[in-house]
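Box 4.2: Ligand-aware structure prediction
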Amino acid sequence: MITLEGIVLREKPYGEQDKFIDVITKDRGLLEVAVKGARKITGRSSSSTQLFAYSRFCINNSKDRLTLNSAEPIHIFYDLRKSLTGLSLAAYFADVLRFSTAERTDSGNVMRLFLNTLHFLEKGLRNEKMLKSIFELRLMSEIGFMPDVVCCRGCGAFEPKELYFSVMGGGFVCPDCAGGEQLENDFKMELPVLSAVRHIVLADFSRLFNFRLSEHALDRLSVFAEIYILSHFERSFSTLDFYKNLL
Ligand SMILES: [Zn+2]
């Protein structure tokens, strides 16, 4: 038997009484766990295996199949359900994690990012657009797609007023080095947006959610973060489309 802390990313009914849950865990990445008699169980044990539950799971591992023995809730994120946009955004984050997290990988930072983002989302402590951008860009950095935010690749300028960011190349050039030419896949942004991207990919977790941005800059950051993640994943998500249709 193994004991793991994790967050439920999906519930999938199976047969008459059972369900499968996808769980992201710190030490073992993404796991699929069978929950026997799930739809009979009520109360504590049931809430600990529902969507977005952060729980401590005791799991039997036999013949390469994982079956839930018991579960204790740590935090359930009930209040996410108070906002349809918040809940939809959380569903998109869960989809992204199911797509990008492998089994048996150390996912400590990714889980911490998800937990912190859900916390701010549940409590309504940050603008949803800001939370979405932070989640998208920081996740990409944690899983090996960190953009190069140091300086202009041509001349080393550290704080150009304006710049072109290559989404797939992952770095940027200033207008002088671009020779006035914006390539098709380059994203034009101004310095405040670059500063926000730098903060998101580099800041310590304790400061990650603490920055301010004008509404215009936040809009640009949000567009950039979404293009960045979808371009690298080469796909979209139906949960993202659903969220955007609500706005
Ligand atoms: Zn330059």
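In the box above, the bound molecule is zinc ion. Residues 152, 154-155, 157, 173-174, 176-177 surround zinc ion (CB under 6 Å).
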